[in-house]
Design a protein that fits this description.
- Helix content is about 65%, strand content about 5%.
- By secondary structure, it is mainly alpha-helical.
- It folds into three domains: about 5-130, Alpha Horseshoe (MgtE N-terminal fold); about 145-245, CBS-domain; about 320-455, Tetracycline Repressor, domain 2 (Orthogonal Bundle).
- The chain has a three-stranded mixed beta sheet.
- Helix 15 (about 220-230) crosses helix 16 (about 250-265), helix 20 (about 360-390) packs antiparallel against helix 21 and helix 21 (about 395-425) runs antiparallel to helix 22 (about 435-455).
- The longest helix is centred in the middle third of the chain and has 32 residues, at about 285-315.
- This is Magnesium transporter MgtE.
- It comes from Peptostreptococcus anaerobius 653-L.
- It is found in: Cell membrane; Membrane.
- Keywords: CBS domain, Cell membrane, Magnesium, Membrane, Metal-binding, Transmembrane, Transmembrane helix, Transport.
């Protein structure tokens, strides 16, 4: 379907006029020229009665496409108002993988209502998919794939593929299995069609199949697809039995979700806040509660660590009675520089740790420290020039310069090593949040600064 260039508002008005005039057949024909998501946008703007009325006149494949892409709340609202037999026909057109993704977002009661509508065969497969832990490859995979037995010849395989391709989510790859449904090879349609009719699948298949386990984190599938430039990747169980496939469009969705999740974690928030923020039907109250719930914990940690900084100030209050008391005024500058360097280094390190193609080793640490040294020297030069122009005392300038350089190096080291250590402990490095890094560097920075001042003035 080609996408019209008309504005969404003009399209909505036209659809509404035709519905009010009860020109439903003409409306159905007109909407065949529009993209599924354009129709979905219209449905979202319509009232409840008109939503159901429009949805019921759509072709089954279009209705299925809309339900595969919509939010769970919209899905429940539509399905609860349309005839069950019509809903079943729409479900028959849907990918079971996409349907299971939507069912995961529902509560148990709503989920069971949908499972009561689908066919018994689909119900069994959906329950199998729903049994997998969230964010594993098994929970992300689709069931619409094509397999051929390794003993079939090319002619037999082509006939089999023709009969099975209608239900397939992807036919870029043909997966070869043995009599126990264990994955033993893979081949492309091109390989199949250029081979001799008498050749068996075992003769022409590629045996070294890249696959992921159904109980592995779905990020492993992302890494494999990215590394080997695959269009789809098979999912197998511990015995090597083929259970499903993860297609590249699912991989893109996972990448977007994981990137968003990591950013929320790094900002000191939570995945729950992201989910509420992305839910168009969430209320202001729900959004506020999710913000408080996601952020308060790290803010409390930040507050408690800030007391450590205050305690260090109290311990060095003797500096206020010395001739170097003016150095206290430069504490914010020292702390800001150290915190920013630590945040930059930790962000880059977390990205490299998440990216399977990037190796994080001693060279990574050395790169951060060397670049921090260069940046620190540049900052020292700039600060020294500014202080000289302002008539600063040489001793004060030297103390500030040394403090800047040391804090920059400490920030780079801390920001780089902390995610690496957390990753070594097999935890998610993205939990190294920016607010916590900053406040820890505040503690380190103020302690180092006061120790340097004390060393120079002999306290």
């Amino acid at each position: 379907m080609d996408k019209k260039q008309d504005s969404s508002r003009e399209l909505f008005n036209e659809v509404k006029e035709m519905m009010d005039a009860n020109k439903l057949i003409d409306l159905r024909e007109m909407l065949e020229e529009y993209h599924t998501m354009d129709i979905y946008d219209i449905l979202l703007e319509l009232g409840n009665n008109d939503q159901v009325k429009l949805f019921e006149i759509l072709p089954l494949d279009t209705a299925a496409d809309i339900l595969e892409e919509c939010e769970a709340d919209f899905f429940i609202k539509i399905v609860s108002q349309i005839d069950k037999e019509h809903a079943k026909r729409v479900f028959d057109e849907m990918s079971l993988g996409d349907l299971s993704d939507i069912l995961r977002e529902m509560d148990d009661d709503e989920r069971e209502k949908i499972l009561d509508i689908v066919s018994k065969a689909d119900e069994l497969e959906l329950r199998e998919l729903l049994a997998y832990v969230d964010e594993t490859s098994g929970s992300t995979m689709k069931k619409g794939y094509i397999t051929v037995n390794k003993n079939l010849n090319v002619s037999q395989a082509i006939r089999h593929i023709r009969s099975e391709s209608v239900e397939a989510d992807s036919i870029y790859y043909i997966y070869v299995v043995d009599n126990e449904q264990k994955l033993v090879g893979v081949l492309s349609l091109r390989d199949l069609f250029i081979s001799k009719d008498s050749s068996t699948m075992e003769d022409i298949m590629v045996e070294n199949v890249k696959s992921v386990k159904d109980n592995e984190d779905r990020e492993e599938a992302v890494k494999m697809v990215s590394k080997y430039n695959l269009v789809a990747i098979p999912v197998v169980d511990e015995e090597g039995v083929l259970k499903g496939i993860i297609t590249v469009d699912d991989i893109l969705d996972v990448m977007e979700e994981e990137a968003s999740e990591d950013m929320y974690k790094f900002a000191g928030s939570s995945e729950h806040e992201r989910d509420v923020a992305e839910n168009e039907n969430s209320t202001l109250f729900e959004q506020v509660i999710s913000c408080v719930r996601g952020r308060l914990g790290w803010l409390v940690v930040t507050l408690l660590l800030s007391f450590v900084t205050a305690y260090i100030f109290m311990k060095f209050q003797g500096l206020m009675s010395t001739k170097m008391y003016e150095l206290i005024f430069f504490v914010p500058m020292i702390l800001t520089i150290g915190g920013n360097v630590a945040t930059q280094s930790s962000a880059v390190t977390v990205i490299n740790l998440i990216d399977n193609d990037k190796k994080v080793d001693f060279q990574t640490i050395a790169k951060e420290l060397v670049s921090a040294t260069i940046n620190g020297l540049v900052l020292v030069a700039i600060a020294s020039i500014v202080l000289l122009l302002l008539g600063g005392v040489k001793m004060s300038i030297l103390i500030i310069a040394v403090s800047i350089l040391i804090n920059v190096l400490l920030g780079a080291a801390f920001g780089t090593l902390m995610p690496i250590v957390i990753n070594k402990l097999e935890a998610d490095p993205s939990v190294v949040t920016s607010p916590v890094i900053t406040v820890i560097m505040d503690v380190i920075g103020v302690l180092v600064y006061f120790l340097i001042i004390s060393a120079f003035i002999g306290l």
